[in-house]
Structures are given as structure tokens and as C-alpha cells.
Design goal:
about 450 residues; alpha+beta; three-stranded antiparallel sheet; two-stranded antiparallel sheet
Length: about 450
């Protein structure tokens, strides 16, 4: 038989043997029938990836069920595995993707073949500014099986195992783990193909967080700037960390990323501030109270300082009664003892008239207001530290007072009947009308 399409060997002899073999194989295949096991064996001898005959011929377009009977454990029950199939594969339409029924070569470049059918996906992928690297490279099969899979969407593995074939395990970052990450729900937040948001997020950061978390700014007047800006990731790590609340850094360090250190160059530091316990007083997200305080100032301070004002106080300093602790104290740190904003009496002059400016004579202790007065509350009038006779007696000896003629008959009476406790026109700080009594004349009535 002449085979004119075959090249000639040297010496004019034709290559008849290979052609004869090909003819023989073709005849055997035809004799064996289109769907026989013999056809399967012969095709497997020359081609890779030939489908198994029989069961897969009648599966649905979207899924198939394969019954696997274990051979090792003879007592085991039948295991049913549901397989999801690519429609062209189910229909044995190999040429929809491949160059021919018997070729592994694709009809186009990676990705192009897939987008020939998946046009809507292609439109969404190209519209997104941020693309997943395999998508950008058209490497669909790095995540999807083109024929069959036990996983939805023909994924090679379940989520998150599939993600971790490229990405480092985010849970390794720490014991404090975000619930969706712990549950392997990567796609709750991330788009697997393309998006307009950094990090392949489906939505902006704030909206992504609010899908699960309550809006803690609701009905709050004061909102922390990063929260208002939706910059949750300025403070929090989205996957896992070592710090409570998924903070990137300890509380104090987190706050100091934006806020100046209030303790810098200060001698006296409020204990919660020194301990980095900013959240003892402040809400990190939003509040109804100025300064992002969790409670009004008075209630905030009373969380620790529950003895101010004293329970049996007769007289309470006006700022204390008003809960205006910050009128006198710095809440974080100060160079003044007791966290005062200023030293006395300058601090007192912020509210009280400065009677020293025009005074001719002053009481020796007048510069130390708290030497005689309690700053918060007292059981005595005018916030005195103790009964006035005892208070004056701390400095003035009783025998010296008795030697003064003007004190005759004044035993047990209040000193301030005759004397101004702060300033006066003479060195004895006598009030108007008290000079005559001091000279032995009629003394003013003692209340």
C-alpha cells in the first residue's frame, strides 16, 4: 500500500512501519467501541487526562456524586462525596477550553479562556483597582480546579487552607484572634478577585467593621478622630495580635502615636497615666462627655477618689460641689504637688479676688492658703482646717494672747471678730472699729 504523505528514508525506502502501527491501533479502537474499557486503556496509553468511562456521563451540569466503597476497612459504611463539576467538563465539551478533545493545550492565554465564558466576572475584575495577584496574572487554576472539585466554586481547597498556600497564617501573630479569622471566614471581609479597596476589602474599612460590630458612635457627641475617619486599622490589627482588643501596641503606646506625652518633663504623674491605663478614664471611640471621658468629670474622679467631698462635710468648695475638679487639677501630670495647675495663692486668684494687691499689712501665713483652709470640704465654716481657736492656737500661744489688754474678756471667742485673717490696715490686722477695743475702750460685740 502506498502512503504518499510519508517522507522517504535514505535509499528510497518509505517509513511503512509507524503508519502500519497507527492503522492497527485505530482499528483496535474502532473494534473496541466508543465507550468501552478497552478504549479507555488504549487512549491512556497515548494520552494523559482521559476521563473515566461510565459514571460521569450522566451527572448534572453543576455537580456530581461519586460513591466510594472503602477497600481497607471492610466494615466501614459507604462514603458519599459530592463533587462540583465545570459544565464543559460535565458535557465532555473539552474543546470549549482545550485546542482539541485529545490535547491539554488551551485555546488561549491563561485567564483568557476562562473569561470567554465568565464575562461578568471579567468585567468586575477589570473594573476593580486592586486585583488579587493570581487574577492579575490570569492564573485561575492556582485556586480553581478546571474540571471537578469537592469544594464549591471548584476551589482546590477549602478556605482558609487555600489562602494559606500563598499567605502566611495570620493567626500565628498572637493569641488574641479576630473571630472571622479564627473561623476561617476570609471572604467575610475580603474579595477573592478584585475590588476598589486596599487589602482586597469588599467595602471601606469602617463599613467592613460595622458589618459585625455595633456603631459605637451612635448618639455620641464626641467622636475620636480616627473613628470618625473610619481609620480603625490605625489602632487595631484586623487578624490577630498579642494585645487585648486586637491593638497593634499597648494602650499607652497606641495613644502616643498621635497624642503628645502629657507626662514629659513633669515631676508628678497621675497613677493611671503612669501605668498607661488611659482607658480607665477615656473611651477610645466615642463619648457623650468632653475629652472622651467615660463618665462626667466628678464621677470619673470619684471612681478612685471616693472620699471627696467628705461625707460629713459642712462646707464644700464650690468647684468640688460643681464637679469641676479640673478647675484646679491637671488630670495627667504636673510640676506641682497634688497635680495642681498652679501653686497657691495664684491658683486661688483664678476665682477669688486678690486681696493682697492693696494690702498694707498681711498675715504671715496668707501665702499658704491650704495652711488654714481645706481645698475640698470641711466640717467648719469657710473651709477651715479645724475650729478657729485651735487653728489660731497652732501658731499663737495662749499666754501671749492673755497678756494683751484688748483680749480681756475675749476668752473662748472667735479671733475673727476683731481680726481680719488675711490683711489689715495695721500690724495687728484689726478690723474697723476694733482699734478702740484694743486700746481698752468699748470692745465690739462678739458673736
Amino acid at each position: 500500500m502506498n502512503l504518499p504523505f510519508l517522507p522517504k528514508e535514505r535509499g528510497g525506502r518509505r517509513l511503512r512501519f509507524p503508519a502500519a502501527m497507527a492503522g492497527l491501533i485505530g482499528s483496535l479502537v474502532l473494534m473496541a467501541g466508543c465507550r468501552s474499557e478497552t478504549e479507555q486503556k488504549w487512549l491512556n496509553l497515548f494520552f494523559d487526562g482521559v476521563p473515566q468511562p461510565g459514571a460521569t456521563n450522566v451527572v448534572s451540569r453543576t455537580s456530581a456524586t461519586v460513591v466510594v466503597k472503602p477497600t481497607i476497612l471492610t466494615n466501614a459504611a459507604t462514603i458519599t462525596v459530592k463533587l462540583f463539576s465545570h459544565p464543559p467538563y460535565t458535557q465532555r465539551n473539552c474543546s470549549a477550553c482545550h485546542e482539541s478533545q485529545f490535547s491539554n493545550a488551551m485555546r488561549g492565554k491563561p485567564g483568557e479562556v476562562c473569561f470567554g465564558c465568565h464575562k461578568e466576572l471579567h468585567a468586575s475584575f477589570t473594573a476593580g483597582k486592586v486585583k488579587h495577584q493570581p487574577v492579575a496574572e490570569g492564573d485561575c487554576t492556582s485556586c480553581h480546579n478546571p474540571h471537578q472539585s469537592a469544594n464549591k466554586k471548584l476551589l482546590l481547597q477549602t478556605i482558609p487552607a487555600l489562602c494559606l498556600t500563598c499567605h502566611d497564617d495570620p493567626l500565628a501573630a498572637g493569641k488574641v484572634q479576630h473571630q472571622p479569622v479564627q473561623d476561617g471566614e476570609c471572604l467575610d471581609c475580603h474579595a477573592p478577585h478584585a475590588t476598589n479597596f486596599k487589602g482586597l476589602l469588599k467595602k471601606p474599612v469602617k463599613e467592613t467593621c460595622l458589618d459585625c460590630h455595633d456603631d459605637f458612635t451612635a448618639n455620641k457627641k464626641i467622636v475620636h478622630d480616627p473613628v470618625a475617619d473610619g481609620a480603625c486599622l490605625d489602632c487595631h490589627t484586623p487578624h490577630a495580635g498579642k494585645i487585648k482588643g486586637l491593638l497593634k501596641k499597648p494602650v499607652k503606646d497606641t495613644c502616643l502615636n498621635c497624642h503628645d506625652d502629657p507626662t514629659a518633663n513633669k515631676k508628678f504623674i497621675h497613677q493611671p497615666v503612669g501605668d498607661g491605663e488611659c482607658l480607665d478614664c477615656h473611651d477610645p471611640h466615642a463619648s457623650k462627655t468632653k475629652g472622651l471621658l467615660k463618665l462626667p468629670v466628678k464621677a470619673t474622679c470619684a471612681e478612685c477618689h471616693d472620699d471627696i467631698p467628705a461625707k460629713k462635710a459642712k462646707d464644700v468648695h464650690q468647684p468640688v460641689a460643681d464637679g469641676d475638679c479640673l478647675a484646679c487639677h491637671d488630670p495627667h501630670a504636673s510640676n506641682k504637688k497634688n497635680l495642681l495647675k498652679k501653686s497657691a495663692p495664684a491658683l486661688c486668684w483664678d476665682c477669688h479676688d486678690n486681696f493682697l494687691e492693696k494690702a498694707k499689712f498681711t498675715h504671715d501665713v496668707v501665702e499658704d492658703c491650704t495652711g488654714c483652709h481645706k481645698p475640698h470640704s470641711s466640717t467648719e465654716d469657710t473651709l477651715l482646717a479645724k475650729n478657729i481657736l485651735k487653728l489660731c492656737g497652732d501658731c499663737h500661744d495662749d499666754k501671749d494672747l492673755q497678756a494683751v489688754k484688748g483680749h480681756a474678756g475675749a476668752a473662748g471667742k472667735s479671733c475673727v471678730v476683731c481680726h481680719d485673717p488675711h490683711v489689715g490696715r495695721d500690724k495687728f490686722l484689726l478690723k474697723a472699729g476694733a482699734s478702740a477695743a484694743a486700746a481698752g475702750k468699748e470692745a465690739p460685740a462678739v458673736k
